[in-house]
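Structural prep section.
Before we set up the soaks we want a predicted structure of the protein with iron/sulfur cluster in place, mainly to decide which crystallisation condition to try first. Input record follows.
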Amino acid sequence: MFLDRLPPVGKRLARGDTFSFACHRSLSCFNSCCRNKHLPLTPYDILRMKKALKLHSDDFLEKYSLYRVDPNSGFPVLSVNMVGETGVCPFLGPEGCTVYDDRPTACRLFPLGRCSGVNLRGAVLEEVFYLLDAPNCGGVEEQESQTVEEWIDDQGLPPYIRMNDRMLGLLFHPRTNASGDLDCHQQQKVMVACYNIDLFREFVLKTGFGERFRLERETVERVMESDEALLNLGFSYLEQALFPARGSE
Ligand code: SF4
Ligand code: SF4
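Run finished without errors. Recording the tokens verbatim:
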């Protein structure tokens, strides 16, 4: 199943297609675009940013995020809490992005958008890229051209895409109930296991989670050391907790 709002066929780009774009300081628009926008935060975005800022995930969420519930999936949706009357990104400094090495997926992808989804018959992922409308962006007038694949590598997107697609696998899980709604208790589970992962680590280590889910000792050791391993465990846990296999409910 694909996410809705796919771009028209003529606008779709595959990984081998080329597009023109370059962003640099000499453009008059430099630093003007990190404001007045809805900037989504995926679980992996938050993992990277809270680590770069040396914050507990709870503090990061409190300070920098906005929370709402997606009316279609019932899943929590997080975005950056823009500040001030003009809605400036809190990570924008005079010299540009202060979290550049760990900036979120949407900032890395720009000027591209990406739709992806999982096939209902299995876990096969499909994807489509497209150029976003960016009327005030001087970068789209530049002649430097690259393939989508080159852009993905250049912007350090592979781990983001991998982790974001795991999240998408939950959103479009074949065992999603007919109404598509998650109740408050399920939404809390998603918040902890995907977004507030330092809290999830405490939950795993202090509440007998390992015994209940029969985790190997090596798995527990890995999640103590690695946020990525912990997030992967969170996705697996949620798949079981939200979409139990038929017969085990
Ligand atoms: S995170 Fe960085 S690149 Fe993204 S909008 Fe904020 S300042 Fe701009
Ligand atoms: S508007 Fe476009 S070219 Fe200008 S700084 Fe932002 S991304 Fe770069």
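Observations: The chain has a mean pLDDT of 88.
Flagged for discussion at group meeting.
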